[in-house]
Amino acid sequence: MTVLSIPSRLMRESLSFRTKRRAPFLQVAKSAIATVAAWLVAGWLVQGPPPIFAAIAALLVVQPSINQSLTRAVERSVGVVVGVVIASLLGIALGSPTWVILLSAGMALVIAWALRMSPGATNQVAISALLVLALGTATPNYALDRVLETLIGALVGIVVNVALVPPVLVPPAREKLEVLGRELAAALERLAKALEAPQTPASLEELLLEARLLRPVRDAAAAAIEDGADSLSLNPRSSRHRRDLLAMQGLLDRFTPVVTQTIGMTRAVYDGYDETIAEEPSVRAIAEQLHRAAHDVRRSFAVDTGADLPIAAEEPALTRPLQIRAPSAAHWVLVGSLLMDLHRVHETLRDDET
């Protein structure tokens, strides 16, 4: 029963048309405004059929960042031009029966593939070729007018995206980074507590699973910082945010190895654990160092990367490498592995102090 329920659940998720998070309402409003404005402007400048190309171009060009808007505008414009050229040549040579319309779509896709166009531009080439032959044969200068419409719509979309509060995605990046700091410190605390008291197999499984979840948290922070950098490209509001974003990227780069080391230490405890390990003096000393490391991780991630957050006032707790006596023969492999990773964590935190 359980085996059958997993594929059915996955199928329901794959067929879902809803997302977990809504796009910001501002993005929806800008798309609507750009679509209406492009229709009106293109209809006024280009006489003829309804300016569908302009409205579609504006709708597609309004993206979360100005950089993405320019990219989409270029894709859309190049795709329309290439598609119109293909359709015009075929129409002049063969007319516009149904088989020529279908041939134009196939040729458009092949030519776009040969030119190594992006997926967005490739689809636009085929769509433009279909529309020009299917709708434009009875209208003079139809192909040229559609190119002008597309350029007008793309320009209107960019102007609207720039004029109406260009989005800056640095605050969401800071939030994701703070989540990483909290989760990393919590993972170090959990590992320390696991070394201080006897653990059951189930608790060790949970400990390892929670440690492995640090990777997607780290990846989410990296993706958010990348989105933040993209949102600053060509953005007139970017100057006061760039230093903040660079500081966050530096913090992420510095602590990414600590994420790996924390997972490695947890795995070592999972593989080499026995009930007597909590009685080992060196292991208790390592647990104390892990508590201190967790404190310093929280301190590092609380350091201000802008001007609006207070700097943590606490002193660092992990101030020097741990020195211990040789562990017992039963635990020396695990203790040695923990010490190596703990030393690397210490080096990262010491670099943070300097």
Task: Average the pLDDT over all residues and give the rounded result.
Answer: 76
Written as H for each helix and E for each strand, in order along the chain, the element string is HHHHHHHHHHHHH
Let me know the largest β-sheet: none
Q: Find the count of extended strands (DSSP E, 2+ residues).
A: 0
Uncertain runs with pLDDT below 50, 5 residues or more? Answer: 1-6, 303-319, 326-330
Strand content: under 5%
Helix content: over 70%
Overall geometry comes to elongated
Radius of gyration: 29 Å
If helices are DSSP runs of H or I spanning 4 or more residues, what is the number of helices? 13
For the terminal residues, how far apart are their CA atoms?
Answer: 57 Å
Question: Which structural category fits the helices and strands?
Answer: mainly alpha
Quickly list its features:
354 residues, 0% strand, disordered N terminus
3D structure, described in words:
This protein has helices spanning 2-14, 25-45, 52-61, 66-94, 98-114, 119-135, 142-163, 170-196, 201-212, 214-232, 239-272, 281-301, 332-353. With 354 residues, the protein is an all-alpha fold. α3 runs parallel beside α7 and α10 packs antiparallel against α11 (239-272). It is elongated. The chain starts with a helix and ends with a helix. Mean pLDDT is 76; it is low at 1-6, 303-319 and 326-330.
